[in-house]
Specification:
By secondary structure, this protein is α/β, with parallel strands linked by helices. The chain has helices at 2-12, 17-20, 36-42, 55-58, 63-78, 80-103, 117-133, 152-163, 181-197, 220-229, 250-253, 299-304, 312-315, 317-324, 330-353, 381-395, 432-447; strands at residues 51-52, 111-114, 142-147, 168-172, 201-208, 234-238, 257-261, 273-277, 367-371, 397-398, 401-403, 420-425. The chain is globular and about 65 Å long.
């Protein structure tokens, strides 16, 4: 174990002994591309009885990265003082540096590592709450704008930090299904116009990059640009599904704050996220909600030590980078193939059920919303929760389901008939058989005359 740790530490320091003896003229061959068998081996800890087409909820972590995490955990447990004083800060700085380059941030100080995008939201919204408490923002006048699609825990954070402090919350209604990004852009503009007409000053806009449920890629660059045009003070992009799922470039997006999990689509173990805070955006006033000894030393330093806990998920980012290098095109190639295959599988399922996708291809990333057969009788959120459990327990299919009430005309006539949408994901471990299993399970339910009403008895 000692020699194993020494090798690991030398690698972290960029000071591997073997590198000193490699001739400058010798070019090391790139690692061989990963094979299908090796991919299945990396994820052999997944339950083989389950069609796991829900990477979006919890992500995944390959065996090689789990092994690297275990080495860090043992290094800590073996000699915690040595780990704290000599390894932890250095290792987190290494991970932050990699993330900075991955997302094209301008400076390392703009990148902090936290445990989850939910924590990052608390950091930003806490700053907003303090502005109300300190009198810099006016109660009943100043407001925060967020999308109707915002993640549930983020909505709760807005309630806890903004509403409780006296700020107004403006929720942007969004249609679904969608036919174009312009539908979102139009609704967002209208919401800002209503705020202005009502005498509100929008201090913060909370914008998703890839929404959770329903899953839609938001035209985030356009919405940030609109915020600048309309003098919205700060923009926070909640991109829990961002890195490893869609294009993430801080210079192109132009937000003041941006967060993304690395355990969803970037193969890290749970849990790790980064929070980008642009240096010109009062980032010095950001603080981790868990106050510890590093309070006041900057968010990145504060976040790197919030008490004795397991930091190993934050330390394996270099190992994840080595893992994705084994795929053709690296993480960009993985994103492209996941996008292509989730669309292919989504279209296959929609054709089998006579339904449709919930949004056009450019608004899907590595997830797609697929309409379920109307005859299943999905009439509310309780139905989708029970149907999801039924698919898991009886068919070995893990997939989230979304209820969308049908639009109605003035005379009460139902316009849309599809009320349930499955959110399918595609990640490197998925096989076409996973989606066939889902297709056949739904077909079996339809052919048996099943309706969700049967699950209430």
């Amino acid at each position: 174990m000692a020699s194993e740790n020494l090798t690991h530490n030398n690698h972290l320091n960029g000071d591997a002994t073997t590198n000193r003896h490699v001739s400058k003229k010798l070019k090391l061959a790139p690692p061989a591309l990963i094979t299908d068998a090796e991919i299945q081996s990396e994820f052999s800890h997944h339950d083989p009885a389950v069609a796991r087409i829900n990477n979006g909820s919890f992500g995944c972590c390959p065996a090689s990265v789990i092994a690297a995490q275990r080495r860090w955990q043992l290094l800590n447990l073996r000699q915690p003082d040595h780990f704290y004083f000599n390894e932890l800060k250095k290792g987190i700085l290494h991970s932050r540096t990699i993330i900075k380059d991955l997302v094209n941030a301008e400076h390392i100080d703009e990148i902090s590592i936290v445990d989850n995008a939910t924590t990052a939201a608390a950091v930003v919204l806490q700053q907003t709450a303090w502005a109300f408490h300190d009198g810099r923002f006016k109660k009943g006048v100043d407001a925060v704008v967020m999308l109707h699609y915002a993640y549930g825990s983020v909505k709760k954070s807005v309630e806890a930090y903004v509403s409780r402090a006296g700020g107004d919350v403006i929720e942007v209604p969004l249609p679904f299904p969608l036919t174009s990004p312009n539908e979102i852009i139009t609704e967002f503009r209208c919401a800002l116009e209503r705020a202005k007409f009502g005498g509100k000053t929008v201090r913060l806009a909370v914008i998703d990059h890839v929404t959770s449920m329903p899953s839609v890629v938001i035209p985030v660059k356009e919405l940030v640009r609109i915020c600048r045009e309309e003098s919205v003070e700060k923009v926070f992009v909640d991109a829990a599904h961002g890195i490893g799922c869609t294009s993430v470039d801080m210079q192109e997006i132009g937000a003041d704050f941006y967060t993304s999990n690395l355990h969803k689509w970037f193969f890290c173990p749970p849990s790790i996220a980064f929070l980008y805070s642009r240096k010109s955006s009062s980032s010095s006033d950001l603080h981790h909600p868990v106050v510890s000894h590093e309070y006041g030393n900057g968010l990145a330093v504060e976040s790197a030590w919030i008490g004795n806990r397991d930091y190993s998920a934050q330390l394996v980012v270099p190992d994840v980078v080595e893992f994705v290098k084994r795929f053709e095109g690296g993480i960009e190639g993985i994103k492209r193939r996941n996008h292509e295959r989730v669309l292919e599988m989504g279209e296959m399922l929609a054709a089998a059920w006579g339904t449709h996708l919930g949004s056009p291809p450019e608004m899907c990333a590595s997830m797609a919303m697929v309409g379920l057969p109307p005859c299943l009788g999905i009439k509310g959120d309780l139905d989708v929760a029970r149907l999801r459990t039924h698919l898991r327990n009886e068919f070995g299919v893990e997939v989230p389901i979304y209820f969308r009430a049908p639009a109605t005309a003035e005379d009460g006539e139902v316009i849309g008939v599809v009320t349930g949408y499955a959110r399918i994901s595609h990640q490197v471990y998925n096989k076409v058989e996973d989606y066939y299993k889902f297709r056949d399970a739904i077909n079996q339910l339809v052919n048996s005359g099943f309706t969700c009403a049967q699950l209430s008895t």
